[in-house]
Amino acid sequence: MPNPRLAVAQSSSTRGDIAGNVAHHAELAESAAGHGARFIVFPELSLTGYEPDIARKLALTTTDPRLQPLKEVAVESGITIVAGAPTLTEAGLHIAAFIFQPTEETLVYTKHHLHSGEKAVFDPGRIRPMIELDGERISLAICADTTHPSHAAEAAQSSASVYAAGVLITPSGIVVDSAQLKGYASEHRMVVLMANYASPTGGWTTAGRSAIWDERGREVIAASGDGEAILIAGRVCGVLHGELIRP
């Protein structure tokens, strides 16, 4: 069974600058693909920055022309890109992850669990596509989703082999949240990816320290702190090995 090289983008975003953020995402995704990655996940709301106060006017749909560069990179570089943005549906305003695929199909995951401060702006989502990629089944999560053990358990029950989370985690929360994700990896025998912000966003200081854990809960690769980085994990003789790239 083939195993794709998986990547995490520890990236920065500019408040409300969708075009600029899209261009930066495209550069990082192309860089990851150049190192053999077939999948990359970005932080929560990475295409707009974590900016709840302007999220409604920044809400995107899969047909928004500003997303075209990411669709093109996905097709031309053969990489699946997961990037965060707000989206509006009949059920309300959601924190979402847009999934740009080499097949040219764009899917959307909507965040299931909200932090208390988000509930005044956003609505919980229910959309949860599974990504099939080179023999792996990838289930997504967005930040607070990972604080609910049932969310990771449901992914495992759906035969997910990879649990990929785009997050915004502060220095005060990184130790606890990382330990929980590491625990999901070993408990559910899933590879776990965590993509955190590289710099402050929405008034929040971010910890960086993005990471990848293998299905035994072993840390494969992690950023030592903040600052932009791409983390890549791939298998050699069945064992995951990591590589860190500074853009």
What's the N-to-C terminus distance?
31 Å
Helix percentage range: 10-25%
- What's the SSE pattern? EHEHHEEEEEHEHEEEEE
- The overall strand count is 13
CATH T-level topology: Nitrilase/N-carbamoyl-D-aminoacid amidohydrolase
Structural category: alpha/beta
What is the CATH C-level name? Alpha Beta
CATH architecture: 4-Layer Sandwich
Number of domains: 1
Radius of gyration of CA atoms, rounded to a whole number = 16 Å
CATH superfamily: Carbon-nitrogen hydrolase
Uncertain segments of ≥5 residues (pLDDT<50)?
none
Q: Provide the β-strand percentage band.
A: 25-35%
Number of helices: 5
Major sheet characteristics? 7 strands, mixed
**What is the overall silhouette?**
globular
The strands making up the biggest β-sheet line up spatially as 5-4-3-2-1-12-13
Average residue-wise pLDDT: 97
Describe the structure.
This protein is an alpha/beta fold and 247 residues long. The protein is built from 5 helices and 13 strands. It has a single domain, classed as Nitrilase/N-carbamoyl-D-aminoacid amidohydrolase (4-Layer Sandwich). It starts with a strand and ends with a strand.
